[in-house]
Design brief:
This protein has helices at about 30-55, 85-90, 105-115, 135-140, 155-170; strands spanning about 5, 10-15, 25, 80, 105, 120, 125-130, 145-150, 155, 180. It is of the alpha+beta class. The strands form four sheets. The chain has a three-stranded antiparallel sheet, with no helix packed on it. Strands 6-7-8 form a three-stranded antiparallel sheet. It has a two-stranded parallel ribbon with strand order 4-10. A hairpin with a 4-residue loop joins strand 6 and strand 7. The protein starts with a strand and ends with a strand.
């Protein structure tokens, strides 16, 4: 008489026939797979660390640069802005001890982006696209970014900070990136 064993959701086997012949437990394949995968990842990470140590470098330390290799281009740490542009920066990015204006004007934001080398293009509806011009491209800012122009040309501080986070993510900007002329 062949018994018909069935596994329930917990991985426990039981007999579906009238008489229980045996109950066993077998972990579900996904749990076994996860453990095996974690073990493989751990082993690969250890091997990678050993390879780095064998090459004579510590983990997390870059190898020394030879004098023959060209140095990467050095970009200035700060970019000059006029006083109005610095007010925009204070609204876009948090800096300790400086209060951002409660409302930022769209015109001031446009002027700041223009002074940094971006060209404004009209998108669909209220979307405005800021495309890097030659000056911005020389500074390494190659990506285009879009913003929606507010209806009353006033940008609340919360929205300005959100835009600042987007600019920081796209171009690496912060309040320390800019200085007043």
């Amino acid at each position: 008489m062949a018994s018909n064993f069935v596994r329930n959701a917990l991985g426990i086997f039981y007999s579906s026939s009238s008489g229980v012949r045996g109950i066993g437990y077998e972990p579900t394949p996904s749990l076994v797979h996860d453990r095996e995968e974690k073990a493989r990842e751990e082993k690969a990470r250890e091997e990678k660390e050993e390879n780095v140590r064998e090459e004579g470098c510590e983990v997390g330390v870059e190898p020394p640069v030879s004098p023959d290799s060209p140095a990467p281009p050095v970009s200035p740490d700060t970019y000059p802005l006029n006083a109005r542009g610095m007010q925009v920066v204070d609204s876009l990015f948090y800096s300790p001890g400086v209060r951002g204006r409660p409302v930022l004007s769209w015109k001031a934001f446009e002027d700041m982006m223009g002074s940094l080398g971006f060209v404004e293009e009209n998108g669909e509806g209220t979307r405005r696209r800021f495309v890097p011009g030659p000056t911005a491209q020389e500074r390494g800012w190659l990506a285009t970014i879009n913003f929606n122009q507010p209806r009353n040309d006033e940008i609340p501080l919360e929205v300005a900070r959100e835009w600042g986070r987007r600019l920081a993510g796209r171009y690496g900007w912060s309040s320390q990136t800019f200085v007043q002329e």
